């Protein structure tokens, strides 16, 4: 069991470095408290890897992934649009942590569940469980993924302290949309990862151009151009005082 635990920890930890799961963890860390993100990741990883080791132990490596990947892609596009829309809390809600933490926890958990179903990490766990002790693989793979994503959470939490809220919201939405487009393309178009990344970036850029061309009132609030001081004065009928030299 210990050998399976160590092997699966090393394999999954290395596989997660630079993976979209780390980018997701960093993105969520920009929006939510780090312990909420880590808790959601742990819950989702525990469940997904339990499914993985069960499949690997009893059924082998046969698992249809295209439909799950498409569903996950649609979900991430939805998350991106929701992030652009933004959330508003009343003063009473803002002071009650239970009203803000619970939705965040379930959002993180559901996002990682959808993202990891059919992902290469799940397939790697299935493969490991087919030839090793399933309990050791389950524990080791879960710890390996949580550890890798914890590194991303640290980076996201540190970066979030130095970025304005508007920039965080736009960056998070762009990442979610990018994940969604990539996962949709990955499951409907057999192309290389580089081509998929370039195409996803192109779709994201096209969408940004379309939004930029829209009238101000049709854009999401976070993407509306903020009026300058002069425009604000003109709108309110006020003028800045003019100082004359004696």
Automatic annotation (TrEMBL):
Keyword terms of this UniProt record: Membrane, Transmembrane, Transmembrane helix
GO cellular component, one term: membrane
Membrane topology: Multi-pass membrane protein
Annotated segments matching region Disordered: 225-246
Sequence ranges of Basic and acidic residues compositional bias: 235-246
Protein family according to the UniProt entry: Belongs to the GDT1 family.
Name by which UniProt lists this protein: GDT1 family protein
